[in-house]
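Summary for the funding panel

The consortium committed to producing paired sequence-structure records for every protein in the target list. Below we show the first two records in order, beginning with the earlier of the two.
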Amino acid sequence: MKLLDCRLQGATAIITSVAGEFTAAGKFELCALTAGGVLQLYEIVKGGGGGDEGQDDDDEEIGVRLQFRGRCETRSILRSAVAVRWTGASRDMIALGSDSGALSIVEWNTTDANNHHHASAGATCKPVHVVDFGKTGVRRGVPGQYIAADPAGRALCVAAVEKTKLVYVLNRNAAGEPTLASPLEAHRSRTLTVDLVGLDNGYDNPMFAVLELVYPTAEDEEETSQQQGTAAAA
């Protein structure tokens, strides 16, 4: 027996957002991750400001607005996201970290590419590749809280709150479909991850920068307390 929670009004809090060209090349779009586990896609559209006819052209302001394109229910707790483009691809995909214990690569497809400004036109997303790496749930040792991509589209790094970090190399199979190679472990004990970013390393190997906080073990704390007690007695 399963319980499905459907609300009349969805959550409006945005966890994070990523920018890229998701549906077609040349379209600057924004994908927002909401607290209800929903992906929402918006296109950034430039239009006239609607000035009076008697005004000069210089007085007209060019407005920028967000046009809703589509939404996708993931039925999960979304934790992080990053835009990634495979080598040779013309548009971006989204790498998602969630409570599923897996790294998901999803892409957006338009339902009407010839008339995307029509009200009925929209976009739908589908998973392209999913790899499992840990237990389900939001745990401090399960990767997915932080995710970063190499700017050249060669690798992804997924990190947990504590210790665990996995690096995936982006490949393609014989049919040309995007795939992920077996992960490379970059774990560090007694560390808490604060943030994770991908660095532009040119043609050299992909490189990621991690802001970490090292915490002491119980033995270190006991030794420190003993040293402080000895110093106080002296």
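The next record, for a separate protein in the list, is shown here:
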Amino acid sequence: MPKQTIWYDNLPLWEICASSSSAPTYFPAYELKNGDLSLPHIDGGIAANNPTLAAISYAIKLGHKLEDISIISIGTGETSQPYSYKQIVQWGLAEWAIKLINILMNSQSSANNLVAEQIMSTKNPEGYLRL
């Protein structure tokens, strides 16, 4: 049975990148137009700051074996810093709200990286590189 075309199958790469990289607080949402619809898009990192596990899962769903998968995962570098107890014990609601976004994004990315390394190491230890 032929694959059904989805409205976003033929979007230009630049528009996909713009749609997925509009980080809130840094850039405005990207307006993606689809016929009469005007859809706002924000940074894909809100859902998956390190989407490596999603890529591995999708490749397996398509029938690829782990030993045939190679991934280069490119991050933006470390954005978090360790905080001392003396620092955080003084934080109020506003400070926690500001810092918590980075803490959550970095911990999600680190956890995905760790699991991706463990999965790939079972069949293809040289097939995964995180920069």
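Regarding this second record: The longest helix spans residues 93-123. The longest strand covers residues 30-34.
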